[in-house]
């Protein structure tokens, strides 16, 4: 029987309530460990980004569940920052960043449902702290930019985990492409934050930590009292 057809049948049974979630997970794991079409060797576990999982599907669900929480937190944080922003030209960019993160969360939610699972992650302590700081109208926009660029340090490195996980996927091409596109958005938002901070701080974008040697990162140390969480 075609593997894709079997998976569709399992999804139909699960969504109609005929099959429990535990049974559904067990059957999907069995399918992933069975020889594929043409006698392909069965999959024996899955590794990505230094972590081991029983299957590729389990890895995807864990990864995107955690990603959903961070994207949801980012959407709220940027939106709240935009609401108290007092800097010309910054507010619109923050609104766009918030919308990007929000639609990332919606894409992740839809993909999770397509895989027959539910999201479990909620706001993280780091995310709650990020929201608290960026929503604080008593902290200047420049101080917030200094803090968040210090947290990110390098936009390319910030997007790297998404690309690394996507590259490790073999079967789930839908999630693979979604993560690649989300990484491009994350890189764009990160670069914009660094460029805006450099412009408002009276520096050339070429002086940004993202485009210079690691030693330059010290220039973006957040002011005392504006400490964002480590991620």
Q: Give the strand order of the largest sheet, numbering strands 1, 2, ... along the chain.
A: 1-2
Strand segment count: 2
pLDDT below 50 for ≥5 consecutive residues: which ranges?
208-227
CATH fold-level topology of the largest domain: Ferritin
Head-to-tail CA distance between termini: 45 Å
Taking all residues together, what is the mean pLDDT? 82
What's the number of helices? 8
Q: How would you characterize this protein structure?
A:
A hairpin with a 2-residue loop joins strand 1 and strand 2. About 9% of the residues have low confidence. This protein has two domains: 44 residues, no CATH class; 164 residues, Ferritin, core subunit, four-helix bundle (Ferritin, Up-down Bundle), CATH 1.20.1260. The protein has 231 residues and is mainly alpha-helical. Strands 1-2 form a two-stranded antiparallel sheet. The chain contains eight helices and two strands; from the N terminus they run ααββαααααα. Helix 6 crosses helix 8. Helices cover 62% and strands 3% of the residues.
